[in-house]
Amino acid sequence: MIRAISLPASFGRALAAGFAALALLSLSGCGYNNFQTLDEQVKAAWSEVLNQYQRRSDLIPNIVATVKGEASFEQDTLTKVIEARSKATSIQATPELVNNPEAFDKFQKAQGELTGALSRLMVVAEQYPQLKANQAFQDLRVTLEGTENRITVARNRYIKTVADYNVLTRSFPSNLTAMIFGYKTKPNFTVQNEAQISVPPSVSFDKPASAAK
């Protein structure tokens, strides 16, 4: 008759602790901790992008109000800025948006349209001596330019962070960890609309008939 071997309780606890330690080492070796670190960095970078876009959005009402003071200003250009801002701010930019490629693309396009509309507004404003001489408008222009630079810096940081996260998601053996825990690549900013945005709008520098007196 075979007798059951009774092991001390301390041995069982030690064995459980050993398995737990092995599991932690396996997760660490497969990039689990790196996923957590990079995910937090992506969230922080995304928050900064949103902060700078919000900063720009908050400037627009003052810019519009100042431009409206020039009675002859091209209303179509002004209307497009107002509509583009409305469209951009209507999208709820939640943290989950960075995990939804379709929603992220929609957000990116809306912000790109606003960038283009503001660019055209500033080019057209150069036709109006009163605006060029308006100190309040010039101060807003400088602030807007600074904000656009901040947006560029924030976007570049986000692009780099997401690229690091996506490389980890695709690389072996961390891709196995990604598969097990359901980690997927995150959408990133693209240059799909950037080329079009960067092209200066075609603007006639002849003074509008309504302004010629």
Structure description:
The longest helix is centred in the N-terminal third of the chain and has 37 residues, at 32-68. The termini are far apart. With 213 residues, the chain is mainly α. It contains eight helices and no strands. Helix content is 71%, strand content 0%. It has a single domain (34-198), classed as de novo design (two linked rop proteins) (Up-down Bundle), CATH 1.20.1440.20. The protein has helices at 9-29, 32-68, 75-89, 101-125, 129-132, 135-170, 174-181, 194-198.
Structure at a glance:
The protein is mainly alpha-helical. It has helices at 9-29, 32-68, 75-89, 101-125, 129-132, 135-170, 174-181, 194-198.
Name its key features.
single chain; 213 residues; mainly alpha; de novo design (two linked rop proteins); 8 helices; 71% helix; elongated; disordered C terminus
Which secondary structure elements does this structure contain, and how are they paired or packed?
Blueprint: H1 9-29, H2 32-68, H3 75-89, H4 101-125, H5 129-132, H6 135-170, H7 174-181, H8 194-198
Helix pairs in contact: 2-3, 2-6, 3-4
Average of pLDDT: 80
The CATH architecture comes to Up-down Bundle
State the shape. elongated
CATH topology: de novo design (two linked rop proteins)
